[in-house]
Structure formats: C-alpha cells, structure tokens
Design brief:
Blueprint: H1 6-34, H2 38-66, H3 72-102, H4 108-117, H5 121-141, H6 149-161, H7 165-175, H8 179-206, H9 213-253, H10 257-269, H11 276-288, H12 292-316, H13 326-343, H14 347-365
Length: about 375
C-alpha cells in the first residue's frame, strides 16, 4: 500500500471543503436576506405552531370528510386559507366588540367597519375618538395603566389612515418603513404558508432523525397535548377570567363590560401583576364612594370566580400529557417576562412557544439517550 502524500489528502478533501464553504456562504446569504423580516416571520411561525392543533387541524379534519373531491394538496391549501381568515376574524373581534358596546345603535358597527375598509376620514376620526374615550374610561378605573389617551388616538389615526396594505407593504419592501400594518400583513401572509407547507417541512426534517414512525406520531401527539395545556393554562384561563370579571363588575356596579373584560384578560396574562390588579382597584373605588356592600360583594365574587376558573383549568388538563407542574409554570412565567422584554407584545406568542418546544423536545428526546425517564 503506497503512502498518501499531503497532496493526495488535499486533493481528496479540497472538493468537500469547497462544497462546505459554498454551503456556509449560501446560509450566510440566506440569513442576510431573512434578517429584515425576521420579526414578522418569527411571529407567524409561532402563531402557526400555537394555533395549528386548535384551528387548522379541526378544519382539515372536517374538510377531509366534506371535500372529498379535492386532492390532499389542494385541500390543505383551501383549509390554510380558511384558517388564516378565521384567525383574522379573531384578531379584529376586539374592535368589533368595542364598536358594539360603544355605539348607540349596534347595527352601525358594520357601517363603521366598511368606512374603515374604504379609509373614510370621518370613520377613522370616529374610531380614533372612541379609542381615546375608552382609554380615558379605563384610566378612571385603573390609573396605573401606562397609556396616554392622546397617544392612543394618534396611533389609531396613523395606522388606520395607512391601512392601504398594498402601498404600506411596498414602502416596507422598498424603504424598510412600512410600519405596523405592513409587518402584520407579512405575518398573516407567512401564516398561510406555514399552515400549508409547515407540516410537510417538519415531516421531512423528522425523517432524518432516528425516530421510528410510531415515535414521530407520539411526538406529534405530545406537542398537541402541550399546546392544549398552554391554551388552557394561559389564554383560556385569562379569557374566562375576563368574561367572569366583566360580568361581575357590570352586574354589581354597572362598570363598562368591555373595559373590564379587556383589562382583566390582558392583565391575567402578565406574570407578577396577576388578577389582584383587576378587582382591587374596582373594589377600592366602590369603597371610596361609600358603596361598601357592593365593594365586598365584588371582591368576594371576583375571588370566587378566580378560584373556580383555576380549578376548572386543572380538571381540563388532567387528561393531558403535560400536566400542571411548578417548574413548567415557572418556565411560562419567565417566558412571558423575557418574551415581552425581547419582542414586545409579540413576546406573548414567541415566549410561551419557545417553552413548549424546549419542554416537548427535551422530555421526548433526552430519554432516548438515557437522560431522564421515558414517559
């Protein structure tokens, strides 16, 4: 056997080194291309992962039974479009609720929405004034909320005036200054593609792992279970607390239902502050106005509703793989804080989803290598 010279080694490895260098260069170029749109795309990916099991999957299951004349690819595309549209409707529902609870004639809400779609200056001004008034009423109940009515009105006027998605998106592409509307449009467009192509990309990636087909199915079920638990423990609990607190405040003291629901739902998502921030100012306000019986009734009903919602959530999560544990709740607590600091409002989605990925993948993959117990 002849001895290999350094030239032989170089001749063998140089093509591979050049290929790896070309791959690294392509990856660097792709990272540079994606860098300006990383925030909206990351938000879309987190939203897709969060809503896929509870929004896309039920619709896809229904379409699989009803739309039998479509092949799998077309059916997924249609369902992805419907799921994205459903998410947009959920996104604008707070605005519709504000209009319904503020306008003298609820039927005028659709007229206002039509005017906003046409960018009618009169309707834009009307909604901006309504938003300012809602913030003023909110500050009358919760003076520590860091909102300024004038700034909210200016923000609404600016964003609704620039609601021409096509023009703002072109500004975002050409100048990098499209604002909130352009980034939201990009995120929703990306959400559609994540719904449509995301599962196939994930399946292709899992095919390169040492997992068996049964383990891949189990991993998918584990992820869905974690999403259900997250939705029950965070968003579902916060929304139910908001509805209960809004009804209690409206029935006992005739407080504005929409304001109390919005504040309670948002505050219940925040760590540290918690539910006490919602009912205590209302009870204190009633007590200062000498309505002491109403204050006691409101505080008692609020605490009772919080206890009932908490235990209802526990019962709903008993059948899930990822049950409530102190360490998981602590991770969610930290993910909300870190997500808000790092990504702003988007952190409400990105932070918890990061925890879900770490918990699911860690609890499933590490036992395969002898670390921890197999569940």
């Amino acid at each position: 056997m002849t001895e290999r010279t350094p030239q032989d080694v170089l001749r063998d490895w140089l093509p591979h080194a050049l290929m790896l260098a070309l791959l690294a260069l392509s990856g660097w170029l792709l990272a540079r291309v994606f860098a300006p749109i990383s925030d909206p795309v990351l938000l879309a990916a987190a939203l897709a992962a969060l809503t896929y099991p509870i929004l896309f999957e039920p619709l896809n299951h229904l379409a699989r039974r009803r739309l039998t004349f479509l092949d799998d690819a077309w059916r997924r595309t249609v369902v992805a479009a419907i799921a994205t549209l459903a998410f947009i409707l959920i996104l604008v529902s707070p605005l519709v609720l504000m209009l319904l609870t503020t306008l003298e004639h609820p039927g005028d809400a659709f007229t206002v929405l039509y005017g906003l779609a046409r960018r009618d200056p009169e309707r834009i001004q009307q909604v901006a004034i309504m938003g300012e008034e809602r913030v003023q009423a909110m500050l009358a109940l919760y003076p520590k909320i860091p909102l300024q009515p004038g700034e909210v009105r200016a923000f609404l006027e600016q964003q609704l005036t620039r609601s021409d998605v096509g023009r703002t998106f072109l500004d975002f592409l050409l100048h990098g200054t499209g604002g909130f509307i352009a980034q939201l449009a990009l995120a929703l467009t990306s959400l559609f593609y994540f719904y449509d192509f995301g599962p196939r990309v994930v399946s292709s990636l899992l095919a390169y792992t040492p997992l068996t087909p049964h383990q891949r199915v189990l991993l998918r079920r584990r992820f869905q279970s974690a999403i259900y638990r997250l939705m029950t423990d965070t968003l579902g609990t916060a929304l139910l607390k908001g509805l209960c607190m809004g009804a209690i405040a409206w029935i006992i003291a005739d407080f504005n239902f929409f304001i109390v629901v919005a504040v309670t739902t948002f505050i219940s998502l925040l760590p540290v502050i918690g539910f006490t921030f919602v009912w205590l100012p209302l009870a204190s306000l009633l007590w200062a106005q000498q309505h002491r019986v109403d204050a006691i009734c409101l505080a008692t009903a609020a605490l009772a509703s919080s206890w009932l919602v908490h235990h209802l959530g526990e019962r709903l999560t008993l059948s899930l793989d990822h049950r409530r544990t102190v360490w998981l709740s602590f991770l969610l607590f930290l993910s909300l804080i870190g997500g808000l600091i790092a990504f702003g409002v988007k952190g409400f989605v990105v932070g918890p989803m990061a925890v879900v990925f770490v918990v699911v993948l860690g609890s499933f993959w590490l036992p395969l290598y002898g670390i921890g117990d197999v569940q």
